[in-house]
Amino acid sequence: MGKPFPLTNQSLGKSKSLLRKMMSISVQSVHQQHVRSIRLRCASASNYFDYEEEDSANFNTWITAAAKEGLKHIHIHISWIFYQLGFIFSLRTLVVLDLKFVCVHAFGKVDLPSLKTLRLNRVEFSLDFYLTKLLNGCPNLEEFEGISLSSVVSWDTDIEYKSRSLSKLARASISHLDEFNIPFDIFSSVEFFLLKEIVLDDLPVFANLTRVEVVYVRRSVYWKLVFGVFENCPKLQEFFLGKPPILISEDILWYCPCVVPECLCLQFRKCTVMNYMGEKYEKEFVKYIVENSTSLPEMAMHTPASLDPQRRLEIQNELENYCNQ
Asked: Hey, is 48 helix, strand or coil?
C-alpha cells in the first residue's frame, strides 16, 4: 500500500493560492506514489473559502488521478464549498469516505460498490433526499456515521424517493439532526445503533439490532424514542441511556407502551443508565424494565460524579427496593 498524501493547515497554511498550487502540481506525484489514501484538512468551519471554477477543476483532476491508481480512502475536512464534489460518489475503488465541513450542492450517479465506511460530519446537501441517493449507491456499506447533517431545502413530500435497506450495514451512528430528514428504514439491518440528541416519534422495525445507545447531553430524555427502541427491536440485548449530568428545566413528555415489548421477554440481558439522579421518570423507566423483563441479569445505574453522597446513598436504597419487590 502506498503512503498517505496529506494536505493540512500545518503544511499549507491557510492560503488558498497555496492549496491551488499544490493540487495543480500534485497529479504527477499521485502517479509516482500510487496513492491509496488522501487526507485534506484546511481552514475552519467558520471560514469558508470562496468557490471558483478553477478550484473545482484542480480538485477533480487531482482526485481522479489518484482514483485511477486505486485510491481507497478519502478524508476531506475543509470549509470549502465544492459544487462539483459529487464526482467522488462514483469512484468505484473507494473503501472509506470521510467528509467534514463540506457542502455538496450537486451530484449525479452514485456508484460506490467497494465503500465499507461512510462518515459525514457537518455536511450540507442542497436537498435532503441527496443523502438517500448517496446511501442507495453504497450496497456494501458496513458502517455509517452522520453528525449535524443539514440541507438548504427539504424535499417536496409529494416527490417519492425510495430508500433501500443496506443488508450489510452493521453499525450506524446519527447525531444532532435538527430538521434534516433522514430515511431511518435504510438502517433496518444494523446490529448496533447510536442515537445522540435525537427526537423521533416513529421508528421502523430493526430486525437485527442487538445493542442501542440513546444519548442526550443538552436536552431532557425523549421517552417516546427510548420506548420506541424496545418496541421495534425484537432482538435487543443491550440498551444504554445517556442523560445530561445536570437537571434540565423543560417539559417532559412521558410515554410508556401498553404492551410489553417482545425483546424484554426473550434475550434482553443488560440495561445501563448514565447520570441517573432518581427523577420521577427515571424511576418509572427502571420500574418498567424490572417488572417486565424476564431475562435481565444486569441493570447498571451510574450517578453523576457531582451528586451529593447522601443523595447517592438514597438512590442506591431506592434501586435495591425495586429489585427486591
From this structure: coil
